[in-house]
């Protein structure tokens, strides 16, 4: 802040000295103005004064709409500004005849507006009331300069305004993207939980990046028909194509993950939720509503998984890639595990009630059978016991068959040897 104040005072003093010197030498207004316009040193002083005025106005707008900038924001803006200045100077090398005072003013205005667009895109995560105002103003300015560029090109032919119009068209898509994110955050605030937020965010980014690619392609075709190959546009166009490809890949992987989530993963029952930690590791809330079981047997909220699969298609705990799982082998393994668990549960307790007497082991049943009153008693088995015995037979059959086949194979191998 102190640097700007010092530079402002120095530029004001230098401009005042230039004016005083011109009037001291020429004595009259018109000769003094002509003297200043033809003096390179005087014009440099005035250009510096205009630059300082632009900087002061930009800082005032920044304080009104964005407040104090964080250190990370300042570093990112500095890096992007240097790249922008280099690319813009290369882009306008084609229009050397248009290099004048108006061109420099428009270039400075373009850089300042780009900085505000970047800041608005950075601050979209921190929703504030003033953000919507700056987005509306920036969009209006973008549309105005696009219209001016189109009108100038239609009236005067291809000039430097063509490049300005292209740059403002790219900035307009950035404003749209920021505005769409802002609207989605507002909806998510009032609609909780909004399960389709991830869906709309992915597709909005894909559409915006597709529009940017189309703008770059149209601009390159126009430049090829008018001048030469626009080398300056290849670097940002390459980055835009990469981002579009990434968005398209994210949408494809997300659709596959959501399809698997809806069709292949079972809902968690109350017993499974009770046996687990019962806390979703993604949102850190208790799992009471609809939950899904991943192939690795980890349980999460369905809504949380939809949001998680937006950026990565793996289990949040064990990092299992759910898109590369062999579901046939997984199902057979799960069946065997389930059968073993059922067998263990049955072997632990098989309760049979005979005339209100609990018999937990085979020894107790045999002792009871040998008693003198055996013929007077009627055997009563409870329904759960019958179901357990039936399940035991079902489980033991495939296990027995498996071991029989294994023993036959070993016997055949032994005979061959």
TrEMBL record:
EC number from the UniProt entry: 2.3.2.27
PANTHER family to which the protein is assigned, alphabetical: E3 UBIQUITIN-PROTEIN LIGASE SYNOVIOLIN, RING ZINC FINGER PROTEIN
Under catalytic activity, the entry for this protein gives: S-ubiquitinyl-[E2 ubiquitin-conjugating enzyme]-L-cysteine + [acceptor protein]-L-lysine = [E2 ubiquitin-conjugating enzyme]-L-cysteine + N(6)-ubiquitinyl-[acceptor protein]-L-lysine
Q: Which Pfam families did the record assign?
A: TPR_SYVN1_N, zf-RING_2
Which pathway does UniProt place it in?
Answer: Protein modification; protein ubiquitination
GO molecular-function terms, A-Z: ubiquitin protein ligase activity; zinc ion binding
Q: Which family does it belong to?
A: Belongs to the HRD1 family.
Q: What is this protein called?
A: RING-type E3 ubiquitin transferase
> PROSITE patterns given for it?
ZF_RING_2
């Amino acid at each position: 802040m102190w640097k700007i104040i010092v530079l402002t005072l120095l530029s004001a003093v230098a401009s005042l000295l230039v004016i005083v010197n011109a009037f001291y030498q020429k004595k009259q207004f018109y000769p003094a103005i002509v003297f200043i316009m033809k003096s390179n040193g005087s014009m440099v002083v005035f250009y510096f004064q205009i630059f300082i005025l632009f900087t002061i106005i930009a800082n005032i707008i920044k304080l009104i709409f964005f407040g104090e900038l964080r250190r990370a924001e300042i570093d990112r803006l500095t890096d992007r500004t240097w790249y922008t200045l280099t690319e813009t100077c290369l882009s306008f090398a084609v229009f050397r005849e248009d290099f004048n005072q108006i061109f420099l003013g428009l270039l400075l205005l373009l850089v300042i507006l780009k900085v505000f667009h970047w800041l608005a895109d950075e601050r979209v995560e921190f929703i504030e009331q003033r953000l919507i105002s700056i987005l509306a103003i920036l969009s209006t300015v973008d549309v105005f300069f696009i219209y001016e560029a189109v009108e100038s090109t239609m009236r005067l032919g291809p000039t430097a305004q063509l490049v300005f119009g292209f740059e403002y068209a790219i900035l307009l898509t950035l404003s749209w993207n920021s505005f769409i994110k802002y609207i989605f955050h507002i909806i998510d605030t009032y609609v909780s939980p909004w399960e389709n937020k991830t869906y709309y965010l992915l597709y909005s980014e894909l559409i915006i990046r597709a529009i940017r690619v189309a703008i770059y392609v149209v601009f390159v075709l126009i430049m090829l028909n008018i001048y030469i190959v626009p080398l300056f546009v290849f670097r940002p166009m390459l980055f835009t194509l990469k981002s579009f490809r990434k968005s398209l890949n994210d949408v494809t992987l997300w659709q596959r993950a959501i399809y698997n989530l809806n069709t292949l993963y079972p809902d968690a029952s109350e017993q499974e939720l009770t046996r687990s930690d019962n806390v979703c590791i993604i949102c850190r809330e208790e799992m009471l509503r609809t939950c899904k079981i991943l192939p690795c047997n980890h349980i999460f909220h369905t809504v949380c998984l939809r949001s998680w699969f937006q950026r990565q298609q793996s289990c949040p705990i064990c990092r299992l890639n759910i898109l590369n799982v062999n579901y046939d082998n997984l199902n057979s393994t799960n069946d065997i595990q389930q059968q073993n668990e059922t067998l263990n549960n049955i072997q632990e307790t098989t309760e049979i009630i005979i005339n209100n007497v609990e018999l937990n082991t085979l020894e107790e049943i045999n002792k009871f059978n040998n008693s003198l009153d055996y013929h007077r008693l009627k055997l009563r088995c409870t329904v759960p016991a019958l179901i357990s015995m039936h399940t035991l037979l079902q489980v033991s059959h495939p296990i027995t068959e498996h071991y029989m086949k294994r023993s036959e194979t070993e016997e055949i191998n032994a005979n061959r040897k």
